[in-house]
Amino acid sequence: YRLKTTDGLTGTNNKRSFDENLEREFYRFVRFGRPLSMMMMDIDFFKKVNDEHGHLAGDRVLAHLGLLIGSNLRSDDMFARYGGEEFAVLMPEMELAAALEVAQHIRALVEAAEIDFEGTKIKVTISIGLAEADPSMATGDDFVKVADQQLYVAKNSGRNQVQHLQK
């Protein structure tokens, strides 16, 4: 089961596992009106890391961020490698204001980190899109779409930042 639900490189949950949890948590949101937030994160200029230091360095960065981010989340949060250099966090029972604090903290931790690869210190930043589930969303996919749109706002606004819809 663990092999089926875990990303081998980062040790985080994989997209399949994330999607299953999203379906369950979004159903709880719809049925009981419980708060639910989501972060979509993307490593800024990750291709440059691979081009300058090689793919093994890129793998080291992904693995390091998996540990760094995962160790700074609650046990109830669902943290997953969503694909490539993109991560997602599903945060049940968390409203947008609290999720924004978590997202800003994660962004700052990543910016401050120095990842050692064969004696070279690699620094990266992340862009984060943040969303809170609301009744206008019909499905979990609608929820993902809003977080993903905010991620692209962050990337297109200069990167290394958190963006969310104002409530």
What does the model show?
With 167 residues, the protein is an alpha+beta fold. 48% of the residues lie in helices and 22% in strands. It has six helices and seven strands, in the order ααβααββαβββαβ. It has helices spanning 2-5, 15-32, 46-53, 55-70, 96-112, 140-156; strands at 36-43, 78-83, 86-92, 115-117, 120-122, 126-132, 162-164. The strands form two sheets. It has a five-stranded mixed sheet with strand order 2-3-1-6-7, with helices on both faces. Strand 4 (115-117) and strand 5 (120-122) form a beta hairpin. The termini are far apart. The model has no long low-confidence stretch (mean pLDDT 96).
Mean pLDDT across every amino acid position: 96
**What is the first-to-last residue Cα distance?**
39 Å
Low-confidence segments = none
The portion of residues assigned to helices is 40-55%
Bulk shape: globular
Oligomeric state, counting identical vs distinct chains: single chain
The biggest beta sheet reads: 5 strands, mixed
Listing every helix as H and every strand as E from the N terminus to the C terminus, the arrangement reads: HHEHHEEHEEEHE
Please report which band the strand proportion falls in: under 5%, 5-15%, 15-25%, 25-35%, 35-45% or over 45%. Answer: 15-25%
Count helical runs: 6
What is the alpha-carbon Rg in Å? 16 Å
The number of E-state strands comes to: 7
Write out the strand line-up for the largest beta sheet, numbering strands in chain order: 2-3-1-6-7
Determine the structural class based on helices, strands and strand pairing.
alpha+beta
